[in-house]
């Protein structure tokens, strides 16, 4: 038993080389024990065991600075820097985050969750070190698909200009979340095949010194190679070939599924996640897309390294052929590609996690929306009730998209509305449309008005469904606007208020990007108060637009949402309650305005 | 005289090869005639004359699609596609934009102003072509420094996967706006030195076929090379060596100044721009920075290819040595670099045009602000009264920055306040601070309260100067909040209202990222109405926050700003007036609320 005795990297250095294999085995056992019941990034960490041990034996952290990217491969680093308890003691599994976190340890230097950042951040540390007059080593670890991100390129390209110590470890496990994409990965394969000798060398072409290590899962080999670059006086790339999932057969055999897994049988690797048969939004999306793609060869689904979010399993990707494109981790390119496809007469449908599309903000603004090209964007996992790591929050999508002229942002309240909006968006040719795929779970609203089928039931100003709000019920006291997946909260609040005799107009805005001026004027003229309800950030959100539009009428308005801030590993129910984002909270806010 | 007879590329193809030199001379003459009195991108277009002629002789636009990047090198393309009048007839100089513009011609396919986009957009056209079943050539032109942008890399990396026709012209003029930066450019130099034979080849390392043309200013050479790739069945890079400013000695000798120039003596190249001795904000910024940098070696100024915006001329950059960094066109890297420098104890000051920092939105959110590192960000040219090309608008900065938790965004109203805020921000260690450098020209406010010097004169809630608003005058009827460079408008309106007997509280908010709740509550409780005034986009802007905060009090609020939209080559005074962003407009809005 080694882990319980490791309080700091000094303890790792004190272990005789002959016992490091046993340490690696123990680390793998702890990883599999924890992740099989707790969930987390399995394959990326199993592959990095030996390299991480070597890093801590060669470098003197925290004097020397190790910057991990993507930081979901820091579990082993955490075990070796005083945080093994969070992997060996089930009662303490939640005491560390899944990413690098300076709040936990002096061995972590940045909160990092999005990919492709380590080289640039490490360049900054190295430049700062030089300005301040320090002399420590700065080590960036990058890999697991992140090289395809533009920021990683920008960092590597600039690194050559630094001219002082910087060690860039490229963890080449031949994978992204799914398989790798892009010409670069073909040339990494060539480097692997030639033991690093191929003249076709991306890193050298960027002006960087370069070393290759074939057996990245042999600790002594890696340690020897790293020892040679310690204290180096210029930037160098150390390209290390590792195996994603190394040492655990199920993860080696099924690299994509084990990139992140939630609950599995240790012995067989079989998933133990419940499959209750109710399709989630990924599956629902795939069903619509596959039918439409089959009928129309001009429709193409685009992913940036997260194909499963749209239900595209490996088999389905293969079946879709040229109508499915995974660009790898490259959101900027994905947005521009979609714009170009639309300009050429194709129909691109680009699905992504809302947190990652921040990378494409300028491309949405310029490459796509200035041009008005009809691309369909599907933003997943947006809601304060979805991912709760500080680097993966689902509360910034509305401020981001709503800053962009020309982008219609739809917020369906339920499954039926989502599916109809998706069909509608695929057919819409007037400009780009984004849909906020409900991020708080699948909700059903039988009988909701859905365009062609239910247009007559739809009231409100503006053009045809879905570009006009749905007035669900009418009352004279307060108008409550429940946006997207926050609608059920507004609906319950309305019912409670009605039961108390308060007249409520319940509105499903449908369009997150803003309401027609005359619609708000009408609401302001026929009520005593307005309450807006959204499960995203208040600042820049939907409610603020309503407050501005209602402002001149002097009606009382209360915007409910999440106050601007970085929230980490919070309890979603608690956070929602603290922001009055509960039926009781909404009802209380309404009554306060009416008092 | 050829130009007046060229209505379309067919006319270019009809010119005998022996006369193309005369055509090129005529094009250069027209460029210099126009740009010397009108302003525009001089060097980039002079260098592209022969390549553009060759493109239109080899390819059949608009069937074949030419996508230019950065599209400020499209002047010659415009001359050859029916728009020569805008370069030969002074009365029609303003009839074309400075960038590619589908609204002008079927030969332009995208509105493009930001760099590094053409490869991705062209990938999209090519993919769309394949889906639709067309067979035309798609040609991307990239160069003039744009290869350092992450989006260009993402596009090149993916291009290899396309597998069908795509021709990428790399216009290598050895320059960005200023000199090139990054290791990539060293390897381009190696390719130039070896006539394209060096094994160190960035494009091949990304899996792309590659050709080199040494004499990119010889039309026949370029034409012959392009003829060989026309109809090619896979992606290919054609690396063309051109000379920025070719054919005009002053532009060749002073490549940086002639990247864009406003008014110059054709014979000597001497600038005729008035120098009235009043320093602008670039010069003012440099004066503060150079003094602080001299006193503290930990301070470093960072630019992403626009060093002049902070006053860093070539001589000053040389003098600053390691305390000045130009990362090239690489905003993502610049933000992460700044975060790393701050984490290592340095003080980074990163200055940029507000329109370009959109590229760094995710890096601001994640690499910098989640980490709370004390970097200073200076955002220039933000205002509806600054750049008025649709791709370079200065109205999106407040929505962008205000979406980001943890970022303090200051909006000085005048020179005195800006300089004091810059000094303050350099010393501030609590987190990242951005400053909206006034984008509507230098304004002086004698006696404005400036922290240490004037703290006693400052009222309002919250912490010390400048994090608290300035109450300039007190009145009982309406509170007018004039943000940053819109303050003078609010001030004049207040004076006019006071003269009419309306009691005005005039507020300089100082902080664009939002006011203290209690401050807004106090305003709402002591006035009949509130008017906010900003010269940026309303949606996501400063005013909306005030409207939301004031909402529960039922006070009338009117937010004045620019409605969300893409505005192109507008008259700033007209646009401002149409949005009530004049003293009269603000006063009228206030009176309407009070009526």
UniProtKB/TrEMBL annotation, chains A, B:
The keyword Cell cycle does not apply. Pathway: Metabolic intermediate biosynthesis; 1-deoxy-D-xylulose 5-phosphate biosynthesis; 1-deoxy-D-xylulose 5-phosphate from D-glyceraldehyde 3-phosphate and pyruvate: step 1/1. Residues 279-444 form the Transketolase-like pyrimidine-binding domain. Pfam families: DXP_synthase_N, Transket_pyr, Transketolase_C. Its EC number is 2.2.1.7. It comes from the Bacteria. Keywords: Isoprene biosynthesis, Magnesium, Metal-binding, Thiamine biosynthesis, Thiamine pyrophosphate, Transferase. InterPro entries: Dxylulose-5-P_synthase (IPR005477), THDP-binding (IPR029061), Transketo_C/PFOR_II (IPR009014), Transketolase-like_Pyr-bd (IPR005475), Transketolase_C (IPR033248), Transketolase_CS (IPR049557). Its cofactor is Mg(2+); thiamine diphosphate. Homodimer. Belongs to the transketolase family. DXPS subfamily. This is 1-deoxy-D-xylulose-5-phosphate synthase.
